[in-house]
Amino acid sequence: MTAVVQLQSHRSTDAETLSSAQHLLELARGKGVDDRRRLLLGIAALCDATPPGAEASPILGEIFMVIAGQAERDIRKALSDSLAAAEWAPPALIAMLALDEIEIARPVIAQSPLLKDQDLLRVLVEATIEHQIEVARRPRISGRVADAIIDRGEPASLTALAGNKTAEVSEDALGRLIEQSRRIAALRAPLTRHPRLNDALATQLYQWVGQSLREAIGERFRVDETRLAEAIDAVTRPVAAPPSAEPLGMEPADVTDHEEMERRLVAKLQSAGQLRAGFLIRAVREKRLSLFEHGIAALGGFPISHIRAAIVRPSPDALFLACAAVGIDRAVFPAVLEEIRKLNGGWPGDGDEGYAGRMTLPPSAAMREFRALMGHIGA
Question: Is the pTM of this model over 0.85?
């Protein structure tokens, strides 16, 4: 007898819920202000009645989509606040709210468990810089999303990502952030506190920061600041003339000795785990072409003859592949190419610059293509 009473009670409750939902749908389609107010009260009551972990009924999902499409700003804001942490909310509605104006979008971007990587990547592409910053601040964003933020290179978003200690940032991605800190001073302080910073990355970061942050790095990683500063100075100190051309008054033996010193410096940095793409870029900017050649050859595991052949080709395709293979940022390559041409008599030539359409080529694929392209040249 008790079971029959319980079944009748459940049927009665289900009927009442369905009737309430249908009434709310009618209110959602209404135009009056009073309808909107009653609708919000009804939604709140229906949300409270939804059991934890349960999915919203199709009617409730339809109500939400109607509201989002027709509602005034304050109603959309109330919806965003109330649904930010809900696991049962309609995913399409959450994705829509994430692209709304920033005050509406912020709660769902920050909290909603229904926003997946593809939703966050869409926000990065389609929404404002304020939206991008919120994505960078979102707890536990994936490495895929973090890499997309770094690829975009927006200073405010990068700074937000650097301060997000729960984001999945790989060692390579953190190295790219550190390289960006050369031009974006705001990145430096949060990077010195980043939980994934290691000895090698700390050494790379050390050269861009001020004295107080150097002391923080030195204390955290127990480094000898004096010796570290001397090592960095030796690496980055420019020479009087490009080593690719024989300086006035220098004997050929002196040129050979100078190149051997650069080769040893590259080998020393590589053995210490400090040879990175940023070092190669600095070498070119400081007009040290031979240092760049030895550095990219060592970092990519290429014969030096392949690198030197790449920079005298009629087109820059091979040089682009080599740079992409060792992690030189695609956005930086045109500037690197211009500097190398200045140092190398205009080479590589400007024929068939097809690399522009291959900017998304991953490093592993670029390495394979470079080896295949240059394979006919002896080491």
Answer: no
